[in-house]
Amino acid sequence: MTGSPPNVVAPRGFDRRREKLLPVQHWPTAEEARAGKWFTPLQLGPLTAATRTWVPAMVPWRATDDGLVTPEVIAWYERFARGRPGVLVVEATGIRDVPSGPLLRAGDDRFIEGLSKLVQAVKRASDGETKLFIQLIDFLSIKRRPTKDAFLTRFLRIDDALKTRLRSLTPNPLPEGEGELRSLLLSLDDEALSKALSPRDFEAMRFGLRERVTDTHLPHIAELPQKLPSLFAAASERCVRAGFDGIELHFAHAYTMASFLSALNTRTDGFGGPRENRVKVPLDVFRAVRNVVPKHLAVGCRFLADEIIEGGNRSTDAAWFGVEFAKAGMDFLSLSRGGKFEDAKQPKIGAAAYPYTGPSGHECMPTTRMPQPWNRNVAAVAEIKRAVLNAGLSTPVVVCGGIATWQQAEEILRTNEADAVASARQSLADPDWFLKLRLGRGQEIRRCLFTSYCEGLDQSHEVVTCQLWDRAKGFPDDATAARTEDGRRYLAPVWS
Ligand SMILES: Cc1cc2nc3c(=O)[nH]c(=O)nc-3n(C[C@H](O)[C@H](O)[C@H](O)COP(=O)(O)O)c2cc1C
Ligand code: SF4
After folding, report:
1. In terms of residue numbers, what domain contains 417?
2. Angle at the Cα of 27 (from 408 to 402), degrees rounded to 5?
3. Looking at the CA of 455, which ligand is closest?
4. What global pTM score does this model have?
5. Claim to verify: residue 139 and residue 277 sit in the same structural domain
6. 163-202: per-residue pLDDT in tens?
7. What number does the ligand 1 atom closest to the CA of 448 have?
8. Nearest to 413 by CA among 2, 32, 15, 42
9. Most exposed: 12, 145, 282, 364, by fewest CB within 10 Å?
10. Residue in 212, 208, 218, 215 with CA at minimum distance from that of residue 143
11. Residues 93 and 197 in one domain
12. Distance of CA 366 to the CA centre of its chain
């Protein structure tokens, strides 16, 4: 970490955005930082994290299209490790060996070598101080939004139910041939189509076809409860071989495991309906993973303190799940918020829906467009923490979302609302920020502007960078700094 940079060219609008940041009257001195709680050790089951600082999972879209670790992936994590967070969580990594774009994978032994290089780089960069976890994810298929024409002429299945609905809409007899029926559908406006098509087909036309855990008529969905535990366990075992200190099971946001937990999971095979049923697959997954992960390594999960969507889980459900996970022996409970498909914006034609574009997405990654983006998850997480404590358990709880100052973190820890405080975008904006705080150099921190710049890159699956790095100019190592392929953005902060 060096001193202040010689110059940062602030683009237009930066000052206005900075004005919206949570004011900081006083950054802690090194003594104050030492006397606080954030930089005290935390027991995570068998592991001791050196501090309660945490960088949660963030996908940077830097893997190869085959899901392999690249030098850019290693550089990304190495850079965070130099700031010495207590825990650094590697991005959502697929448990299956299926094409999923530049998202890391752990679905085959060939991924171990790259992951192990990543682990070694992080250990070196943090002098062994940072505990490195990897987030393991499963997701269901989602198709891009088709044109109305393509959907109605090619993808839509014509069945009797559709014909019955069409008959009720028109006084004329329906044409016999499928081609004529499709032409008739094409002539309807969206309002008529909303009545003619089933709700799922209408949604598939407007958003793209999205599988759900409730699609039990599909054999591969019906058998998820039997398949997922061994898939997660096999991927975890590979990550153990790669040298990770722990596994974070991704039970949050819009993906398979969160969908099992969701109150919208109405499966009737014993894995949906009441909470007791919805928690079964996640617990089976945890037990299978715990079985293959040696006792000296940690296993926990990230799940939602509130799904935010209509009919979804609220914090009371999350508190119940938290107690079940703690009772089962998880080593940590990391909480996120929202990030669902159900309220996502309609994507453009040719694009897939993105679960962070609606109200639940804004709760997941709050921005200064909201009147109050700070601490949005704290009250719900505190409720989960209290429920775990009341059940006589001490499983550590991690809070995240709109937390980017020392004062916020200390207040949360002092009042026992959580045991660790995670910062995603502030750590991206300045990967040295934890170190700067520890050294009493808080005034040198590049503060995250809490816009949607990095999230927008994530949405379009572009290499994620921070606008604070991208707009910086005039640094000594400017000319040699690694850039994105188009040469327009820096792959890491240039002031380091
Ligand atoms: C670019 C980007 C990628 C993210 N990828 C993941 C991910 O892979 N897994 C996950 O659980 N959360 C992911 N998140 C959400 C963050 O971990 C975090 O919960 C969210 O940004 C709110 O925290 P913050 O206000 O400190 O940024 C991502 C966030 C960003 C900005
Ligand atoms: S790009 Fe992301 S990390 Fe950087 S300042 Fe904007 S919101 Fe913060």
Report:
1. 30-143+217-443
2. 30
3. 1
4. 0.95
5. yes
6. 999 999 888 888 889 999 999 999 999 999 999 999 999 9
7. 27
8. 42
9. 12
10. 208
11. no
12. 13
